[in-house]
Design brief:
GO terms for molecular function: adenylate cyclase activity; ATP binding; diadenylate cyclase activity; manganese ion binding. The chain has 270 residues and is of the alpha/beta class. The protein has 2 domains: 110 residues, Pyruvate Kinase, Chain: A, domain 1; 150 residues, DNA integrity scanning protein, DisA, N-terminal domain (YojJ-like (1). 30% of the residues lie in helices and 23% in strands. The protein has 8 helices and 12 strands. It has a 7-stranded mixed beta sheet, with helices on both faces. A 5-stranded mixed beta sheet has the order 3-2-1-4-5, sandwiched between helices. Strand 8 and strand 9 form a beta hairpin. It starts with a helix and ends in a 5-residue tail after the last strand. It binds adenosine-5'-triphosphate and manganese (II) ion. The site of manganese (II) ion has 2 residues, from loops.
Length: 270
Amino acid sequence: MTGLGDFFDDLVEDIAAVLLFTQDNSTYGHFAEADVSTVVVASDNAVDADEFVSLPLEFTDVEGRIRFGLEGALDQEFVEEGDDVLCLTQSFDENDLDTIVRIRADEFTRTGLYDLFTNSRPDADVVQDVLEVAIELGKKGQKGKPVGALFVVGDAGKVMNKSRPLSYNPFEKSHVHVGDPIVNVMLKEFSRLDGAFVISDGGKIVSAYRYLEPDAEGIDIPKGLGTRHMAAAGTTRDTNAIAVVLSESDGMVRAFKAGEIVLELDPEEY
Ligand SMILES: Nc1ncnc2c1ncn2[C@@H]1O[C@H](COP(=O)(O)OP(=O)(O)OP(=O)(O)O)[C@@H](O)[C@H]1O
Ligand SMILES: [Mn+2]
């Protein structure tokens, strides 16, 4: 015995739920039998849990992952604002539940990240595909040089109305979708040139080379971000689109919704 029993008893005392960041069946089995509600947070609901939060990205930072899981659990009303929750997740080895965090559900200010995927106009998997393209582009750049890119996703008709072409549209008569294997190559190629990609709710690439013309009035984004980020913020405020921006200058990927930055990640960490 370690004599640490009381300490660990306190850690689990009065928790309202366990957030389990794994799809491992035998681990889930233990928790399903215990007298506490268990929310599975994972990319798939392989264990067929009643309470499940779909994790659309591999969050490399534990805090971001927990935050996402909590926002999802709150949104689906598996937990309530004042609840204490125990999170079991991985820090050092992606296959090992090596980390226990006890946290109050409202301890974080909501980032809107969960909302970006689940309550947005475009399909969640489309948002996910676009983020992946941006991350990949950010990692590799174009022929070793950093590139920037701007993807506007969803509400494409309105976005097209609030923008104009900078050049011929290579996607004019095509039917390509983000997530198609060939698309990564095409998007990389076209991202060398100016303007934004416009993508439909369902993931069809509607246009490249669009110059966005939102109303710049009242847009409040961090200093140091330039016109590409301004255009992303403005367009997502004026339409129901979301936007994903890869910055050429600082290499970060940022997602915008309703005029605000809701996600900021470093492609090098993915
Ligand atoms: N309104 C717009 N619509 C579409 N694309 C735009 C718009 N404004 C800027 N861009 C694109 O962004 C590119 C970079 O512009 P700028 O440097 O001002 O943006 P930024 O926010 O600083 O982005 P980065 O961090 O990548 O430099 C431009 O060359 C252009 O291709
Ligand atoms: Mn710039």
